[in-house]
Amino acid sequence: MTSTKPNVVFVLGGPGAGKGTQCARIAEKYGYVHLSAGDLLREEAAKPDSSLGKEINEHIKNGSIVPVAVTCKLLENAMKKSGKENFLIDGFPRNQDNVNGWKESVGDRVNVQCVLFFDCDEQTCVARCLERGKASGRTDDNEASLKKRIVTYNDSTRPVIQLFDKENLVKRIDASNDVDKRFGEFLKYGLKGAV
Ligand code: UP5
Ligand code: MG
């Protein structure tokens, strides 16, 4: 049966695993809309009139997770605004509360195709973020924030990936090797438009 619902691919993995880099490539090649939850939160926080800016910035710096109602609203608005049907949702859901909030507000209105899991060792993740931090201007690309981001990832996000795995939704990708080698791995996952 063909689904007429929008398709969603969740993209998860540690800080600096390469989610954003690969999503940009998949989006270009397969016509998905790339929505990074982190980018949407940073954009919202940067608005001069945002009442949520301070709270979002605190969470980002501390590597903690922004309340799901905020993130879900930003994602839903971006999906609506795009007018498109295939979405890569990068960096969400990050904990059980995110999963519950998404189910409540979006739930069956979309078809969750799969979860791309970028599996990358901690040392590589940290090294990439610190390197990027030299020029990124991100308030969380420093050693103190990275320690907290890694703890949050291990304690809160890994269990979510395990949960999706039990539902047979997870496609694991070795994210520690080079960018081009990894890109070829998507071809076998039957993303919409992939051949
Ligand atoms: N790079 C990438 N791939 C490489 C490769 N194969 N070889 C060598 N270098 C590679 O890549 C990171 C860096 O590594 C880049 O410089 C890249 O060139 C290089 P990137 O593609 O940016 O990795 P990504 O996995 O996207 O890393 P990011 O730092 O964005 O991941 P996070 O999950 O930590 O950050 P995000 O922006 O998603 O979230 C930030 C914060 O927002 C969270 O900590 C949290 O506080 C908050 N947040 C929420 O609260 N809720 C959400 O739903 C989402 C975010
Ligand atoms: Mg990213």
Automatic annotation (TrEMBL):
This molecule's function is given as: Catalyzes the reversible transfer of the terminal phosphate group between ATP and AMP. Plays an important role in cellular energy homeostasis and in adenine nucleotide metabolism. Catalyzes the phosphorylation of pyrimidine nucleoside monophosphates at the expense of ATP. Plays an important role in de novo pyrimidine nucleotide biosynthesis. Has preference for UMP and CMP as phosphate acceptors.
Give the enzyme class. Answer: transferase
Positions of a ribonucleoside 5'-phosphate binding: R42, S64, I65, V66, G91, F92, P93, R94, R138, R149
Q: Report the subcellular localization.
A: Cytoplasm; Nucleus
Q: Which residues of the full protein are shown?
A: 1 to 195 of 343
Annotated positions binding CMP: N98
Sorted alphabetically, the Gene Ontology BP terms of this entry are: 'de novo' pyrimidine nucleobase biosynthetic process; pyrimidine nucleotide biosynthetic process; signal peptide processing
Identify the stretch(es) annotated as LID: 131-141
Domain note for this entry?
A: Consists of three domains, a large central CORE domain and two small peripheral domains, NMPbind and LID, which undergo movements during catalysis. The LID domain closes over the site of phosphoryl transfer upon ATP binding. Assembling and dissambling the active center during each catalytic cycle provides an effective means to prevent ATP hydrolysis.
User: Cofactor note from UniProt?
Assistant: Binds 1 Mg(2+) ion per monomer.
User: Which keywords does UniProt give here?
Assistant: ATP-binding, Cytoplasm, Hydrolase, Kinase, Nucleotide-binding, Nucleus, Pyrimidine biosynthesis, Transferase
Q: What species does this protein belong to?
A: Adineta ricciae
Which positions does UniProt annotate for ATP binding? G16, A17, G18, K19, G20, T21, R132, N177
Q: What is its EC number?
A: 2.7.4.14
* Reactions mediated catalytically: CMP + ATP = CDP + ADP; dCMP + ATP = dCDP + ADP; UMP + ATP = UDP + ADP
Cofactor entry:
Mg(2+)
The Swiss-Prot or TrEMBL record annotates one GO molecular function as:
serine-type endopeptidase activity
Tell me which GO cellular component terms the UniProt record holds: cytoplasm; membrane protein complex; nucleus; serine-type endopeptidase complex
Region annotation (NMPbind) maps to 36-66
Oligomeric state and interaction partners are given as: Monomer.
Q: Which family does it belong to?
A: Belongs to the adenylate kinase family. UMP-CMP kinase subfamily.
Its primary localisation, in coarse terms, equals cytoplasm
| ATP-binding keyword on record | yes
Q: Which domain of life is it from?
A: Eukaryota
Protein name, entry field: UMP-CMP kinase
